[in-house]
Write a structure and sequence with these properties.
Blueprint (H helix, E strand, L loop, with lengths): L10 H4 L5 H15 L10 E3 L4 H19 L5 E2 L8 E2 L7 H14 L1 H28 L2 H12 L2 H7 L10 H16 L17 H17 L1 H21 L1 H5 L9 H6 L4 H27 L36 H10 L4 H4 L5 H14 L4 H17 L5 E2 L2 E2 L2 E2 L2 E2 L5 H5 L14 H21 L4 H19 L6 E3 L4 H7 L6 E5 L2 E3 L4 E3 L4 H9 L2 E2 L2 E2 L7 H6 L2 H10 L8 H18 L1 E7 L5 H11 L2 E7 L2 E6 L4
Parallel strand pairs: 9-12, 9-14, 10-13
Antiparallel strand pairs: 1-8, 2-3, 4-5, 6-7, 10-11, 14-16, 15-16
């Protein structure tokens, strides 16, 4: 690697390629291994142990329900938070995967569909990174390792525990690949960011594919759409500075003049195609988003909120995951990491890996000055690393927001936070996904150098196996936690009732990404996929403004909520009499036919006593620690 030439285009190694079935099979095998024991419970359990996964299963069901049965768009639902409902325009549902899930749900049901989509996300994310890195390095062995680094990193396994939408990272490397091909195809000289020779041919086809993958990524995750937008900006600015001598040394050539535009490295027509595909594809959802914001259905967040808990600690990139199979056995280490970092274990788990750091570091120190591609990917890694730290620096859990009462250091994420709508991406730590893509590419460059010193295919295969083993040793979280998919039988009974009605479940549980009212339970929405009746409870990314005031204005619901929160001392006999007079009217207004009271509810006994005294319901059954009440037709 000491040679003064880029470590790319190893044509002698390009012939040593793997077949596509082998590559996909290899990544499938790693997926089944690293998600063990999911393979043995594929139809009866979900990977992960976070309650958010229930909401994502519901999202798959809701899009199928809205499109196939209700024949309406899925960006609003009154099946939760009934009767107000809530807009779902900002919801974290991966729209493309949800559409793909519809035929799968009809064949396999929600559990298998959920697991199939997650498995596919690992394979395609790895394969996309493989294709990108093989294009950049012309080395299939290095590309195979790069795919492992990107798709099986701790960031993805952390979010596998409950953030279904963040698992669909496959569009990221595919977009970058076709963006590079777009520029390479229309450049007379090599593209400095990818170091590939220009072909001088039309790049419109590649531009369309780049726009398509950007669009698919944006429909999967708003976070990743922002990240790709920032990546594109970095890339275009990098191209501009790489050509600064040609563009800025002529005093007669004004910026954005016709001659300047012709001399610039940008394929303007192709970039226009990418932009056009993206805008046309996103315009329906953008219209719904802006309408919801303009009409006040959705109120944008003000202030910092808990953004500091969603930012990466500087040291979290260098500490192994507390979920690692080796470290999680140490209660002291898990306690240390939990107490040290402000964020939840899902957001704080952004470990890069020491093997990857060594490989990427070698590339940076040996090739940074002579290889523009290394310089570009180092820049991408550094910028996204800084953005992942959030608005203020955190080191070992200490937030450097103010020192001696004065602002210490404003990090660049402050700029994003202040931009409307973009500022709603309030999880800076998730920029780590772009850090991992850059580190995968940089590590692959070193792998190319290692393989260039090996003379036989067998030696290359052995070295590939050793490097993959070292990387996975640091990344593996085996056995991976699972959550059972069992549904209490009472919900199947409700499904058998042909009437259209609402189910009131107690404890009440209303929450969005910013606030929670009542219980933290989120499995009610998953149970709704079985009984398919409207419910009062719900969890969404954003909730309609003023919805809590509405529920608290209803006599019976406000009393039940007081009982649930332990405020029994505020209730008087006169209040109970007033509730009894208005109860039937409220129940009719909400179309409630059944009340399900969970024994786990706080103040279970007072609530049960209240239901029997005030409401014209009768107890009909007790199943799975759920007391079922229905309308008392005898009164």
């Amino acid at each position: 690697m000491g040679r003064k030439q880029p470590i790319i285009n190893q044509e002698s190694q390009e012939s040593q390629t793997f077949t596509t079935p082998f590559i996909l099979g290899f990544y499938l095998g790693l997926t089944l291994l690293l998600t063990y024991p999911l393979i043995g419970y594929f139809s009866t359990a979900f990977p992960g142990d976070q309650p958010d996964l229930y909401k994502h299963v519901w999202n798959l069901w809701w899009i199928k329900k809205a499109l196939l049965e209700l024949h309406t768009h899925p960006f609003f639902s009154n099946y939760i938070f009934y009767p107000l409902g809530t807009p779902l325009v900002f919801d974290t549902s991966p729209f493309v995967s949800s559409l793909l899930s519809i035929p799968l749900q009809l064949i396999f049901g929600p559990v298998v569909t959920y697991n199939l989509l997650l498995t596919l996300s690992f394979i395609l994310s790895a394969y996309g990174a493989y294709l990108l890195i093989r294009y950049l390095t012309s080395n299939s062995y290095a590309a195979l390792i790069g795919g492992v680094i990107f798709a099986f990193c701790p960031y993805r396994f952390a979010h596998l525990r409950g953030h279904f939408d963040l698992m669909f990272t496959e569009g990221i490397p595919f977009y970058v690949l076709y963006l590079f091909k777009t520029v390479d195809a229309t450049s007379e000289k090599s593209n400095p960011a990818s170091s590939k020779p220009g072909s001088g041919v039309s790049g419109e086809r590649y531009a369309f594919l780049a726009g398509l993958f950007f669009l698919l990524t944006a429909l999967q995750s708003g976070y990743y759409a922002v990240y790709l937008g920032i990546f594109t900006l970095i890339y275009l600015v990098f191209l501009l500075f790489q050509n600064k001598k040609k563009l800025f040394t002529n005093p007669d050539q004004h910026v954005l003049s016709e001659s300047w535009i012709r001399a610039s490295p940008f394929p303007w027509k192709s970039l226009g195609i990418i932009f056009l595909v993206l805008v046309m594809g996103l315009s329906p959802k953008l219209y719904v988003i802006f309408k919801a914001v303009w009409t006040g259905q959705v109120v944008l967040t003000k202030g910092w909120g808990d953004i500091f808990n969603k930012s990466a600690d500087l040291m979290s990139f260098f500490y192994p995951s507390p979920h690692h199979w080796l470290w999680r056995k140490s209660e002291r280490y898990v306690y240390l990491i939990t107490e040290m970092f402000r964020g939840s274990d899902l957001e704080a788990d952004v470990f890069i890996g020491y093997t990857v750091l060594i490989l990427a570091g070698y590339t940076i120190f040996s090739q940074y000055k002579i290889n523009p591609g290394v310089k570009f990917w180092t820049l991408v890694a550094l910028i996204n690393f800084i953005l992942a730290l959030g608005p203020f620096l955190q080191v070992h859990g200490y937030l450097f927001r103010k020192v001696y009462g004065y602002p210490f250091l404003y990090l660049p994420y402050n700029l994003i936070h202040r931009i409307p709508i973009l500022g709603e991406t309030r999880h800076p730590a998730r920029f780590a996904v772009m850090v991992m893509l850059a580190m995968a590419v940089l590590a692959a460059y070193t792998c190319v150098h290692i393989f260039s010193r090996l003379s036989t295919r067998k030696a290359m295969l052995v070295q590939t196996f050793v490097l993959v083993l070292l990387i996975l040793f640091e990344y593996a979280s085996i056995p991976f936690p699972l959550t059972g998919s069992r549904v209490p039988s009472v919900y199947g009974d409700l499904r058998g009732d042909p009437e259209d009605f609402t189910v009131m479940e107690i404890p009440f549980s209303w929450s969005d990404e910013r606030t929670r009212w009542g219980s933290s339970k989120k499995d009610f929405q998953y149970f709704q996929t079985i009984h398919e009746k409207k419910i009062l409870n719900g969890h969404a990314t954003w909730i309609s403004s003023g919805f809590l005031d509405f529920y608290e204005s209803l006599p019976v619901l406000s009393t039940l909520f007081k009982l649930q929160t332990g405020k029994t001392q505020d209730l008087k006999e006169a209040d109970l009499l007033q509730d009894r007079e208005k109860a039937q009217k409220i129940m009719d207004f909400l179309h409630i036919k059944y009340i399900l009271l969970h024994r786990s509810t706080r103040a279970f006994e007072p609530i049960q006593s209240y239901l029997m005294k005030v409401l014209e319901f009768k107890k009909i059954d007790i199943k799975d620690d759920i007391v079922v009440y229905t309308l008392n037709h005898e009164k």
